[in-house]
Amino acid sequence: xxxxxxxxxxxxxxxxxxxxxxxxxxxxxxxxxxxxxxxxxxxxxxxxxxxxxxxxxxxxxxxxxxxxxxxxxxxxxxxxxxxxxxxxxxxxxxxxxxxxxxxxxxxxxxx
Length: 111
What we know:
Blueprint lengths: L2 E3 L13 H7 L3 E3 L6 H17 L3 H17 L9 H21 L7
Antiparallel strand pairs: 1-2
């Protein structure tokens, strides 16, 4: 069981299009293994918005979507009873990409 806090995601890396979704997770503790819970779904909505805005991590977003659909339909995905690993991978990818993008868009000092 992995928990994250919504305010761990760097606000400066949130796309302007995703500010509302970020606000919905900002003060929440989210259990990534609780597939389908309101807090989990809010995180997924935010991550999907970030993926769409930044054009990164689309493959992991698709993998999570497959897991979620399978879990909601049959109760399992590849023998597992939740999608925590897939969601953690997506969260890590989006967060890492956002931090790297922020670093690469900073103006450099000219000597």
